[in-house]
Amino acid sequence: MRVFYIIGVILCTVGGDLECSADTSKAQTREKSTACNYSDEAQRVGLEAFLRKVKSTYYKMNPNNVVYDPDSTPKSIRRDFSPYNAHPNAIRDRTDAARALCREVNKLHKNADGNKLKPRERKAIAQVKHFLQSNFGAPYDENYYAGDWLLGPNSFCWQPICNVGGDLQAHFTYKEWGIQPKTVDDVNFVIDRLKRLKNSLMQYIKNMKYGIKAGFVRSEEDCQYGLYSIQRAYLKVSQAGPNGILNETFTQQMLDPRWLEKLEKSSSEAWEKEHKATVRASINEALVEYVGKPLDSLLNYLEFNHSQYCVPSNVSSGLATLPLSHVYKTGKILESKQLENCQLGNL
């Protein structure tokens, strides 16, 4: 949703010019309309340039969503795509980028004379302010300084970690915009991105472990609902283990013969000669090794390990009571293990 939200913000202003151009091209004798042009005031404060800056920064900081960039091409998608990054420094970089742009739009808004702006321009400023205040439209798990990225999935699994499968499906597809292997380098690219996803999934587990030490833990009920929710997101893995990844809905396009139909015969033969396995077998193995296994580890950690440290709801039932003053295990305080003096800024 956040992707389409920012696209809407940009297109409601920038895209208007294109619509006007299309209309006027139908009637060459008609005087060109200026209804969709930016007002003089918007041009003075640099509104168009700022909106484009927000858009480009968003996709730079969120390369797992580049396929949704309306200006993207198959070449740029292939160049820029990378899975969701759960590392603390990456979360901090995204938060800092949103905050910097938020300060910039506040300054722009202050300098602009609202009475001289068009209604759609005032609306665009209001929308983009909200978008940036909510951390690029991602209020769950993406504000580094709030610390909620240490908590694990919530009841609705609204965190980006719950949609990494959707990211793969959107980019590794046989649709015209998708990343399809044609050469040996392309196959290596796909496997490399799957390795990066494994790294991110394992980091997500580390984040939750650090959350225990830092006092950022959900209540027992919230932990249970979060587990159910993420198990539902990766249902086949939760039911069948790592190999279940080959039955997940989001991997079916990668497993479809059409996805590899553009693979050069010489590349296929070279790969098989070097790796003693077909490209199809190697991709399947990579999916299990770099996606199925870490997802299985994440689900098992949540169910059998992390759940022990979730606290009774009479101790904490929301963000207002966090961080906790002690580490809890199976509902009891570990007296000998008080919380470390953890500072998010030092992560």
From TrEMBL:
Keywords: Signal
Signal peptide: 1-16
InterPro entries per record: DUF885
PANTHER family membership: DUF885 DOMAIN-CONTAINING PROTEIN (PTHR33361:SF2), GLR0591 PROTEIN (PTHR33361)
Descriptive protein name: Uncharacterized protein
Source organism of the structure: Desmophyllum pertusum
